[in-house]
Amino acid sequence: MIAGNFGPLKKIGQILATLFGISLVAFFLIRLVPGDPITLLIGERGASPEAIADLKARVGLDRSLPEQYFKFVFNAIRGDLGTSILSGRDVFSEFKERFAATSELGLLALFLASAVGIPLGIFAALTRGRWFDRVSMGAAVAFYSMPIFWWGLMAIVIFSVKLQWLPVSGRIGVEHDVPLWSGILIFDSWLAPGSFMERFAAFRSAVHHLLLPALVLSTVPLAVIARMTRSSLLEVLGEDYVRTARAKGLSRFRVVVIHALRNALIPVITVIGLMLGTILTGAILTETIFSWPGLGRWLVSAVLSRDYPVIQGGILLVAIVVLSTSLFVDVLYYFISPRSRGAK
Amino acid sequence: MREDFRVNFKAIGKRFGPVVIKTYVAFELIAAVGIGLAGLANQASASTFVYCSEGSPRTFNPQMGSDGPTFNASSRTIYNRLVDFEKGGTKVVPSLAESWSTSKDKLQVTFKLRKDVAFQSTAWFKPTRSFNADDVVFTFNRMLKKDHPFHTVNGGVYEYFTSMEMDKLVKEVKKVDAQTVTFILSRPETPFLANMAMDFASILSAEYGDKLVAAKTLEKMDLEPVGTGPFKFVRYEKDSQIRFEAHEGYFEGKSKIEKLVFAITTDPSVRAQKLKRGECQFVAEPSVLDLPSLKKEIKVSVIEQEGLNVGYLALNVEKKPFGDKRVREAIAKALNRKTYLDAIYQGQATVAVNPIPPSMWSYNKTIKDTAFDTAAAKQLLADAGFPNGFETTLWYMPVSRPYNPNAKKMAEMMQADLALIGVKAKLVSYEWGTYLDKARKGEHDMLLIGWTGDNGDPDNFLGTLLSCAAVKGGSNYARWCNKEFDKLVTDARQAPDQATRTKHYMKAQEVFKRELPWVTLAHAKAFRAMEKRVTGYSMSPFGTDYFYGVDVQKK
Question: Residue B176: enclosing H or E segment and its boundaries?
Fold first, then answer.
């Protein structure tokens, strides 16, 4: 009951409980999988059982599972997520770099997907059944079901190798020596030493490197957003209040944009919010093709090498990001939807 | 009703068309300026060499690595060892040590060190003295001594050193004077010198170590490395790029390449595209599937070399019925290995006869390969008491390795071959970590696996993979412990000269082929692709890349 009166507290309580659950899953699930980091490190080579036991003791794998878990949680609360067994670097600083790279790519991809997908959906809804609707929605289905690996390579072959418009992979041309500051290269390129002209060239190179992976990464969200916008808008246009508004003699533009679209976009925004989470962590294939040092690749390689501290810490940090986005989407709702405000 | 909302594309076009066109023209104008600038920037960096590497290094300390990408980015660029392998070969030659001598009882190896070798001067460390014996003692004690200040730093996993049992072999590393170091061994061991040329024996700076201890930032030793090698480390962006610059004071003279950039590109097809597009000058490990298209490029040259590796099928002699030699021979005869080479290695491999590759010294050319003969195989099985065959399991690796790019496909082909002699093999695979773990414990019947050599010494194959000690160590996947073979390998390890060692290894290969604990499958070739204007590169049999002496002709 008290929680009902203190909305934000309740939300934070929920988030903490979720994080606790995630810490349990992240810690124990990977340990259910046979094979440990030391075995994988040694590979086909083999080492004596004593040597292996010694190595395990050194990274703390000799202790009991509950002991390891409590140590992990205790340290995490103090802000220490441990160090990677593989690289020896601390998990948080690795995450920061990865997060910046992923954000640069993911946000642009999601922006492209929304900027193209929403208008596409609107036009498709407004031209329902006509050629534009059919072609665009057919293309959306095609894009949605395209294997990303193949599409990425095709994009490289077409735009880079044949047309020579864009670079093949990487984040910036090697001729530009740009040290990472924020981790987001379209900003960092301006902070690099050199004349304005040189910095502009570095910026342009960063933008060019960004375009192809963002294009590939945006195809699936674009298809989803376009179809979602279309069906949502069609539904709203059929509602009584829209008919009333039209009957009152309001202009078509006013009715569609001000009245209908506002409501139609609510489910679309929810979907975009959810996608933000998946795009941050699920861009593994795109990141692999374009050699983009993002979060997805980081986590997958950690899982493959059983780098426990990175898996635990990384999943926890990603969870925090995803939960914060969902909180952000809730706030956005509040401003867009009159209904959720009216509940007061 | 719906007609009401019809879109007027014409009106929209009229309204937004000019805006779009204007924006586009503006962008093109800016871009045109940008292209001019990028051209200028390119000119300024004529001596930059871009290497499209296949993976990220684990660390910048080769003591803690075991994979090609780590060695390429550390021991091959930043560091040197006391001795080295000759460029493109497996012979041991002087490097930081000018000469060496072994005591009569073979328990002491003394190295005379080269004078006036400079460590790199970087943004984070300015050396005040040249390389000397303290650096050697510091380097090896880090791996040897549990109380060394750096022993546990950054995880302290010295897997190579440990798995080679160097921690048991080396009793002490003693400084005699500033230019002389003696290694005291617990037993005579002839491959020791070759081991000292391996990547994990790269020499760190003791002075840098002292500085880090004083600053309490010990972890920087492996993250901001300092060595004596031809290139100094500048910056690493994880999974993206590594930047190096030529070490001005390198003792063999400054490298011709001034800036060396590793563009980390994990997908082999993308690496090939980058080479075609001129985004890199050199490609590590191109996929065999991309070779034909790369060979067609005018600007590109592809080189190949016999790899120092072997792919094999280990028959677990501890499991029934593989303890019976006749069964093992039957399996070896039943498999049509030539067909696998075309299907799996695209023909880029040779059928393996012995457990060591033909390029290695002491390779026994007189050994006759087991012939493919289904009828004879059937007969052998009948003799062993299995006229109708038997049921068993065949394990295949879930990952692609240089010595076997597609184990699953190979297992399927083997399954079909074995069915012809009545052996019903169930295919089994696990995720890589699990696979290794279970295989090490000997849970398999037949197992696909392989090996890439580390130091060009036959002991590195015969001793590491087939000795009785390796059963316990877990790298003897056939779990085959043969007294005669084991004695030959042990004797060879302690033999005084290469001629005697060769004699032992020749004999050991005979025992191997008679007993057939493995079906030897293939020695895969290794490839590199580069722009034709790259000069001075020679391929190492160990699969690592070395850039000192490499140059790029101007376009």
Answer: strand B170-177
H or E element: which one contains A50? helix A49-58
Three-state DSSP state, B427: strand
Q: What is the DSSP letter of B5?
A: G
C-alpha distances (whole Å) from A257 to each of A126, A249, B282, B504 are: 12, 15, 54, 87
Contact, A205 vs B31, CB < 8 A? no
Q: Would you state the pLDDT for residue B7?
A: 65
- Residue A13 predicted with pLDDT over 90: no
Size of interface A-B (CB pairs under 8 A): 209
Is residue B181 within 8 Å of residue B107, measured between CB atoms? no
**Bridge partner list, B526:** B305
Of B41, B157, B265, the CB nearest to A175: B41
The average pLDDT across B231-260 equals: 93
**Amino acid sitting at position B303:** I
Cα-based distances in Å from A113 to A160, B341, B474:
22, 46, 52
CA distance A317 to chain B (A): 18
Question: Rounded CA gap, B245 and B259, in Å?
Answer: 5
In this structure, which amino acid lies at residue B448? Answer: L
* Per-residue model confidence as pLDDT tens digits over B298-344: 899 999 888 899 999 999 999 989 999 999 999 999 999 999 998 99
Interface check for A176 against chain B (CB to CB < 8 A): the answer is: yes
ipTM for the predicted complex: 0.78
| DSSP code, position B205 | P
Record the tokens describing residue B504, joined without a space.
């032992």
Q: How far does A173 lie from chain B, in Å, by closest CA?
A: 8
Cβ(B167)–Cβ(B153) below 8 Å: no
pTM: 0.82
What is the Rg, in whole angstroms, of the alpha carbon atoms belonging to chain B? Answer: 28
